[in-house]
Design a protein that fits this description.
The complex is a heterotrimer of chains A (396), B (442) and C (576). Chain A has 396 residues and is an alpha+beta fold. Chain A is 18% helix and 25% strand. The chains are: A alpha+beta (396), B alpha/beta (442), C mainly alpha (576). Chains in contact: A-C, B-C.
Amino acid sequence: MRNAREKNPLAGGLLAILLLGAAGPGGAEAPFVRNGEAGFVVSFIEYGLSGDAQETGACPAGMTRNLPEIYAMTPQGKRREGESDEAYMDRLREAAGRLGTSPDGRDLCMHPEAGEPDPWFRTVEGSDMPVYGIDLDGEVSDNDFPGMSGGTGIDNQWYRVVGCSRSYQPAGQSNGFNIAMLTGSWGILVRLRGVDDIRNDDHVEVGLYANADPISLSPARKPLGYATYAAEPDPRFHATTTGRIEEGVLTTVPVDAMFRNEVNSMYLDRPLRDARLHMTLSENGLMEGYLAGYTPVEDMYNMQYGYRNGMTHAGELAPLGLRSGSANGAAFVLGHTCHGAYHALQQHADGHPDPDSGKYTAISTQYHIRAIPAFIVAGAGISPNPAQPTREEAGR
Amino acid sequence: MSKISRRGFLRGTLQGAAVGVGLPLLNCFLDDSGKAFAASGRRIPVRFGTWVWGCGFIPELWIPTATGTEFELPAHLAPLEPYRDRLALLSGFDVKLDGVPNKPHITGCLGLRTGIPVPDLKVKAPTLDVLISDQIGDTRFRSIEVCSAGIQRSYSYRDAGSPNPSEISPLALYSRIFGEGFQDPNAAQFTPDPRYMVHKSVLSATQEERRALMGEVGAEDRQRLDEYFTSIRELEQKLALQLEPPAPVEHFEMPGAPPETPVDSEMENVMENHRLMAGLLARALQCNQTRVFNVLFSDTASNLRRPGSSSTHHTLTHEEPVDPQLGHQREVAWFAEKSMIAWREFLDALSAIPEGDGTLLDNCLVLAHSDCSIAKAHAVEGIPVMVAGNAGGRVRTGFHMAGKADPISRIGLTVQQAMGLQVDRWGVLSMETNRVIPELLA
Amino acid sequence: MRAHAKLVNVHRGLPAPSALCALALFALLAAAVTGCTDRGEPVLREPDPVGGPTLLRRLTQSQYRATVADIFGTDVPVVARFERGLRSHGLIAVGTGEAGISAFSIEQYDAAAQGVADAILGEEQRAEFVPCQPRSTTAFDTECAGAFMGQYGPLLFRRPLTNEQTQRYLEAARLGTEKLGGFYEGLKYALVGMMTSPQFLLRIERAQPDPQRPELLQLDPYSKAARLSYFLTDSTPDRELLRAAGAGELDSADSLARQVDRLLASPRFEGALRAFFGDMLEFDLFDDLAKDSEIYPAFNSDVAADAKEQTLRDIVHHLVEQNGDYRDLFTLDQTFMTRPLGIIYRQPVPARHDWERVQLSHDGSRLGIQSHVSFLALHAHPGRSSPTLRGKAIRNVFLCQEVPDPPANVDFSVVQDPSNTYMPTARDRLGAHNTEPACSGCHKVMDPVGLALENYDGLGHFRARENDAVIDSSGFLDGTAYEDAAGLAAALRNHPETSRCVVEKIYRFAVGRDTVWDERAYMDYLIAAFAESGYRVPELMRAIALSDNFMAISPPDQTPVGQGLAHNQSDGRNPS
C-alpha cells in the first residue's frame, strides 16, 4: 500500500509557504510522513457557520440587539428633545447597566441564569440555508441543515444560535479568533501514527493535543511548516483515538478533547466532546476540513460570552472586574445580551442529554480548520536537555 | 587649521609614471571660512559630493539626442526636469582600460574616481573625493559616506587598504552627526567644555610615538602608520572645533531623529532610507559638519530588488531577455528609472535648504555617476555622468555634452579644478589628461 | 603520535642505514622533512626556518572585544561600530596586516575607550578596578596614578611601558585632574590615551637577532607572546604569558611548550577556533545577507545568527570535544540545532530555547558543514540558489583553488529566467556555461560541484525537484565521481587538497600574511605532521606554535614581498 502520486489540489492559501517537492522516486514516504508518523499544527481556525444573513435570509425577524439598543426601543429609551449625544449615550449606558443586573443585584453576564430569556436575542429559525460542517449524529432531523458543498443532515446548532448576531456574520469580529491563536497564546496539534499510505489507510492512530508553544510565524505572520511543538504536559489536554484515510480524506472516531482559549488575557477551556476530524489531506502535508463535535453549553457560554471561569496565566481565577468588564463590554460592542445568549444556548443544545432531566447539555459545533506539517514532541521533562533558561532570561 | 601634508598628496603617485599631481600652494587654499561667517559679507563654503548608482542605464532612455543647451530630456531623465538648468549631462566619456582586465562593476567605477584602471579593489591612488576633502575638509568630519542599500562599502578610498566605510542606517547617521558632540550653531550660549581640551591634548601626546614607531616598522607599514596618525590628528581637529564657538548658520534647524527603518535592498526601503539620509546629509552640509560626502545609492553590482522576486537588479541585467516590443530589458529599465528618481529626490533634499540668496544646491558640486554604461556587458565606455549644482558660481550647468570617447578623467580633472585644487594633469596612460571641460568651468 | 617540533641537528643529512629508513625516504614526499632516529623509525623534522617580515596588524572586532574583556572583565561594555574587515588571500586575518586605519575607525575606537573608562572609573566600580585610593579625589596623586598605569599599561600595550610612555600618561592624568577637578576624571583621559595609542590598537611586531641563526632574526619576546596569544586564544596575552616573555621563557623550547599547552588547554582556545573558522568560512558576509521574505519566509536574523552558531558549534565539538579528524567535518551526520533552524532542516528539535544534538537529516542524505544553512544560504542569491557561487566557494574556501573573475563582456542572455519551463533546473540553465568556450574553462571547475548541492534551495531547504523536474545532483570532483550531495561530501573529505588547504590557511591566519615561496618545505612538513596526527587541528596548531619558523623573521632586505605560494586570491566579491 505504498503511496500513489496523484495530485490532490487544496483550497486554502498556504501553498506558497510549503513549496515542497513531491516524494522522491521509488515509493518513499510522503515528505511530511516519517516512519509512519505525521504531525500537524492547526494554522487557521474559525467556526464553520453560513453566509451573510442578509443574503441567505436567515433572519427575517431582524438581528440580535445589545442592551442599549433594547432600551432605546422602549418609550423611555427614546432620545428626548434637545438631549445632546453625550447625555443620551450616558443615559443608554446607565440603563444598560440596570438592565444587565438581576433584580437581586447580580451581574447578568456572571449570572445569566438569573436573567429571563431575551426576546431580542434572535436565532436562526429556518433550516434550509446551507452551512459549513459535517453530519455529527448520522441522522437527518428537522434541525439539521444542508451542507455547503451538497449533503444533508449537518448538525450546526451553534450556527443557529449565533446566525442572527451581527458579530458572527462573515464580516463581523467574533469569528476572527484565529488572530489570537496566531499570537501564540493557544494552539491545536494533531498527530497521526501508523500511516502507511496518505491516500488510503484503513487504520491510523490519531492524537489531538493542546499546543504548549506559540505557533512559528514568518515575518509576514504566516505559519511556517515543520516547526517543532511540545504538547501540553497536562493529560487533560490529550485525546487519542483512531481514524482512517479514504481517497485522501481523514476521518476519526469521536473522542472527548480539550483545548484552550484566550480572551483579553484570560485563559479558558475549550472542550469539544465527541470531537472528530474530517480533513482532506494533500501530498505536501496541507490539511483542510472540520474539527467538529459538541461543546458543553456552559463552557461555550464562558468562552464566547461570559468568561465566568477565566483564569490568569498563573492559574488563578481572574479578577471579577476583568471577567465582568470584558463580558459586558463584549456584549455592548458585539451586539448581544449575556443572558440572551445563555438561554439561546440552553434552548438549542442538541447533544449529551442530562441523565436525570433529559435536557441537552452540549451544542453541535463545527470548527473549520487548516493544518500544516509540524513535529510534535512530548512536553517538558521528556527532552534530553535539562531545563534551560529562555533566550530572554539568558540575555541573548 | 589643518595643514595638508606633502606626503599625503604624493601618496597617490604611481612609481615613476606621470601622475603629475601638482604641489598645492598651501596658504592660498587654506579656507578660513570658519571665521568668516559674519551676518553679512560671509563666504559660503563650496561642498563637494559624489552620488553613485549601480548597473548603468538604458542608453536610448537616458542620452538626449541633442547636445548643447537645447535638448529634450529622455524618459529616464524626465524626473529631473525641475533641475534641467542645474545639471550638466556628460555622456560618451570612457574609462580607458589600456589592457587592464575589467573587473565587472569595479574597474569602471574606480577608474572614473581615481583616473587609473585597476583590475580589483586595490586602488593605486586616492579617489578624487579624498583629494578634495584633503583640501577643503577641515570640518568636524573630513567626509561622510552613506549607502542607502544596506551595504557598508563606499567607493571612497584613500588607498588600497583604506576604504571609507558607509553609514547604512539613517538612525545611526543621525546619531553620528547630530548626537553627542554636535554643537548647534545657532545655540544661544556657548561654553567650551574643558573635557574636549583634555581629550585633545591626550591625543596630541599620542603623536609623540610617531617618530620612534616609524623607525621600527617596514616601508609598507609606514604608510599605514601614517594614516593612523593622520586619523588621530583628524580626531584632534574635531575636538579643537568643539572648543570654538561654531559660526551661526542662517535658517538652520536641528533635524529630528529619523524613525528606525528596515535596512535592506528592497526597493521601497532603499528609497525611504535614501530620502532620510539625504535629508540628514543636507542639514549636515548646511551647518558645516562636513563639506565632502559620498552617497552610494545602490551597490555597483546593484543589489536592489523587488519583494517576491528571485533576482536582483544586477542578476536581471544579465539574465532578463530583451522585451521584443520595448527593445530593452523591462525590469532592468524599472530599476534604472527608480535610480534617476532617487537622484532627483537627492537634489530635492539639497534644494530644500535655503542658503544665502539661493539654496544649498547652488553651493554644491555633486558628481553623479554609475559604474558602467551597459551593465550586461560591463561596458566602461560611455559611463553616464552628471554634475549638479553651481559650486558657488564656479561651475556652469544646463547642457548636455557628448564625450565622443574622450577619457573620463577629463571630468575628474575639471571637477578637482572647480573645487580649487591646483592640479593640471590627472590620470595615467590613456586616461592621463590635461584637458578640462571648458563648458563646465565658469 | 604527536608531531613534536623537530629533531636535533645531529640527524640532518643521510639517514642511518636501515631498510625501514630507505623505504621511508622514498615513501615520504619531501626529503627535507624526514630523517630517521637511530632505531630507523621515520620522524618528521621541521626544515630550516625561513620566516617572513614583521607585521603591523589591526585587531579584529572579536579580538578587540576579547582583549577588553580579558583585561577589564566581561561586564565592561564595548560600544563601538567596527568597520568590515579587509579580506586578503582568503582571510580577514591576513587583511589585518594590510588594512588602513580610517578616521571613522579612530572615532569609534575613541568612543569605545571612553565607554570603557566610564565603566571602570564610575563611582561604584572604581574600587574594583583602581588598585589604590588617592589621597584626595580632587587632587592629583602621582603614586596612585602610577599604580593604575602600572596595572593596566603593560596589559594594554602587551609589553612593559617605557619611562617616556609612563611619564606621558601620568602627565595626561595630571592635566586632566587639574582641568576637570577630579582625580578619576584625569585617570579616565589617561586611559583613553592608552586605548587609542598605536601600541594598543595595532599589533606592532618587533624583531631581534637570533643567536642560534645569525642569518635570521626572530620576534622579540613580547611580539612572540602576542602572536601566540592571538593565534591560540584570539585575545591578548595574559599576565602569565607576559611574565614568561619578560623572563625569556619563550625563547626556550621547553618553557615555550609549557605556555603553548597552557593556552591550548584554556577555555579561550575555543575562541581561537571560532575566530579561524568564522574567518575561513567567510561568515562576515552574513552581514550583507538578505533573503526574499516571500520566497524564503523561514529566514530572519535569528536564523542567520543560529546558522553561523550551528556550524561553529559543530566544528568545536568535533575538533575539540571529540578530538576528531578535520576531514570528517565534511561528512558529519549529526549537528546542533535550534527550533528556528529545525524549520529549515525539517528536523524535530525538542529543546524549546536551546541547542539540541540531532541528526542533520532524517534519511542521512545531508552530510557535512558544506550542507549547513550557513554555507548554502550564504552562497546563494536572495531568491534562489546558485551552483556557481557554491562551486566557487567550495573551491576557494575548502580546497584553496583559485577561480578567476568572469570576463567583463560575458553575455548572459542564453541563461533563461528561473521559471522557464524549457530549462526548469539550474543544471539546464547553466548548460551554456559549459558549451561557450569563453565560459567553460572556469565553469567546468565551479558548476559541477555547486550542482551537487542543488537539492538545497537558496536558503537550504531540501527539495527533490525544481519546477517539477527531478534534480540531478551527480557530477565529478577532480576525478572522483559522485551521485549526490552525500557523494560530494565523501569526495570532498578525501580530496588531497582539503587537508592541505586548511593547513595553509591556519598558518596564514597565525602569522597574518600569505606564505612565502621559501616556506614551501615548511608547508610540506606541516601537512605531513597534520596527516600523521590523524588530521587533528589542535595538534596542528600546537605544531605551528612550537615550530621555529613561526617565530622566525627574515631580515628586511631579503623579505620577498608579495610572492605568495598561490597567486593572490581575489578578495573582492564576485558578482555572479
